[in-house]
Amino acid sequence: MKKLIVYSLALLVFSCVEPKNPYTSLAPGIWRATLNLSKEPRLSLKDEVERYEKEKNRPMHDLENELPFLFEVKYENQKPTIEIINDTERIRVEDIFLGRNRTTAEDTVFIDFPVFDSQIRAIYREGIIQGDWVVRSKLNYSIPFTAHFGKDQRFDVMQETPVVNLTGIWECNFDLDSKNPYKAIGEFTQIGKKLTGTFRTETGDYRYLDGIVTGNKFYMSTFDGSHAFLFFGKIMGDSLLGTFKSGIHSVEIWEGMRNSNASLKPAASLTKATGKKVEFSFLNQEKKLKSMADYPADIKILQIMGTWCPNCYDETKFITSYLKNHPDQNIQVVALACERYRDTAKALKAINTYKTKMNIPYDILLASTTTNMMETNKQIPFLDTIISYPTMVILNKNDQVEYVHTGIDGPATSKYKEFVSDFESMITNILNKKL
Questions:
Q1: Beta-ladder partners of 79
Q2: For 120-129, what is each residue's pLDDT tens digit?
Q3: CA-based, 20 to 30 A from 429: which of 6, 179, 252, 275?
């Protein structure tokens, strides 16, 4: 009942609505969606429907500003669900509300991503959805969204025979036109024209990328409710040159060279303990003040993270699974969340939603109402320089720092199994250590 009231209030943005039969509106099956990263105006839904009926396709232009992804609509007991498709990953979205705007007679859809505090707000007509993807934790942040039913080609591009197979490891440098370029490793698999993979960096990875190679160019993208990444590249022998767009604000130039021996700095070498006593006093998701004294286990894991962060999402899923599979180990996990909301009440609400939706069995404390890492360090002085969300700190029963792990090589990378193995070995060694 509470959720229905919340949705009804949200729909006032579009005026009053009346529910309608979902089967006659949002068609089940594959949809091709795009986020428009260009600042140029787009066609109205009426004009787009007319163009679509005439051309039966999306126009092939502005490929470097159109971030595409696929999703599948399904119905379970007449309730719609959506699965967003990025390579082998399928992200299930259940918080969907359909209605009709009484003022304009337009069908309306809200697709909510509660874990990442974002939402697609749109109207739909004749197999087309048009609206905006809105990130509530960012001030005035929205990106135009369009989806077409029955289209299963992620990149609507004129296809040519690829000049080379990109499968392999690529040593890359990103943000070349800035004062602080950073290293990355591209891990690609190409089968025919289809290209999948990811980029690993010293602070995390870019998760599941999906795309195509055509001639001497390639395109890759991902959308998961938080990340909106678009990669474009040109192939020049054994080198690559391209652009990377993250949402509507960030654009980076990057380059890559084929190098099977490419490497990054070890995750344990980037952030160090300062030697200061590990202590804190923060509110948890239930607004209760918590400190180190509340966690007396043999091993404590401090997870410095944010509910808005997809790499933190991957780490949280791993930790939650590990605890479930090792109930005999005396481990307590505490997440120290650094949130985008300056307002404490809004930040705690986001934390509580995140914990509930992900079935997290441990406390999430509000460490900071900013994601600025210099500010975060002031709240966590027992570490020298935090450079990544997530950062994992493992403590022994005397609250001494045993290990600090910066970032994560998530399940989209070739190093994920190594990350899991290293974590398990570390836990075993600490439990067996005589203190």
A1: 76
A2: 999 998 889 9
A3: 275
